[in-house]
Amino acid sequence: MGGVVVVDDFAPVIDLAGRNSGEGRVAIAEAIGRACRRSGFFTIVGHGVPHELVERMHRTTNGFFTSPEEEKDRAASVAGVSGLRRFTGDGDVPGLYEAFAAHVTGDLPDLERAALGDYPATWKVANVWPDSPADFRATWHEYMAAMTALSEDVMRLFALALDLPETFFDAKFDRHVSLLLANFYYPQREVPPPGRIRRESHTDWGTLTILYQQDDLGGLQVRTDTGEWRDLPAVPGSFVVNIGDLMAFWTGGRWASTVHRVVNPERGDAASRISIPFFHLPNHDTSIEPVQPFRGGGVPQFERVTVGQWFSHKVRQTFAPELPAERVG
């Protein structure tokens, strides 16, 4: 078993249940390859992550976000990276969400974090953990481990889809610097000002994102190549998978890193919404170059780049575009 269970040439639902059999694994890899060439988005079921863990992760995370503000303040972000961040709007307009983040590297000993070389310095800080709920830290660690294992399997399917040896990516992620993030979108009891949405349009910067979103609430939209916005509804028991800019570069532009956003709920829907993306990122010093010539004979921005250089470039490009570009590759 396994393969495409909902045929959609833009963002299919793919069952991973048969990925441990030779024939099923090839069929699943082919389906993933088609999806990544088309939109870079697909939904997975049959992934093997225990339902109980996903439910506990949601419950514990929601418990943190709905706890008293003074309790949450004790887990406030350090250097804008780990911990709680509240996103404010312009002027007196309130923000529409807050987020909590933890890095796989954030609980390493100080000397190991300091040795992360050219990785952006703000990503080398220690994780900040709340005191409550009591099982928050343990649950997040358990969920990180489950997402890491699933991501490693998906990366092997990526390798097959790209006609590479199945273990091509293994050594490039054996000291990965992945990030786990939870977004808490506030209940919208009033209609936001025109143009304000829960999460603005963007692409992910990295290689692979595995997203949990609530089954009963929508909002995620993906932009098609004609500029239309397509809803990507939550499928019970599933995760949404998408690739980021680094993976698009790695594939010579053959796979798509697609713009997406989170829109506001229907008028009168005052429910909050939680989404939990896991950003699976390679080792900070992995050197990456396109595995195939760039599509259409295009010239890539870099010939090769380390993961640390890539994210330093992205941070600089996004937050300080007026500065001269650094030479990379």
Task: Report on this structure.
Pathway: Antibiotic biosynthesis. This is Isopenicillin N synthase-like dioxygenase. The chain is globular. The protein has a single domain (36-319), classed as Jelly Rolls (Sandwich), CATH 2.60.120.330. It has helices at 22-38, 51-65, 69-73, 110-114, 136-161, 245-250, 307-319; strands at 3-6, 13-15, 41-45, 83-87, 97-103, 179-185, 199-202, 208-213, 220-223, 229-231, 239-243, 260-262, 273-280, 287-288, 305-306. Helices cover 26% and strands 21% of the residues.
Which key phrases capture this entry?
single chain, 329 residues, alpha+beta, Jelly Rolls, 4-stranded antiparallel beta sheet, 26% helix, globular, dioxygenase activity
In a nutshell, what does this entry contain?
This protein is an alpha+beta fold and 329 residues long. It has seven helices and 15 strands.
Mean pLDDT: 87
Alpha carbon gap, first and last residue: 43 Å
What does the largest sheet look like? 9 strands, mixed
Q: So, the CATH homologous superfamily?
A: B-lactam Antibiotic, Isopenicillin N Synthase, Chain
Low-confidence spans: pLDDT under 50, at least 5 residues? Answer: none
How much is the radius of gyration in Å? 20 Å
What is the percent of helical residues?
25-40%
The CATH architecture is Sandwich
- Give me the secondary-structure category: alpha+beta
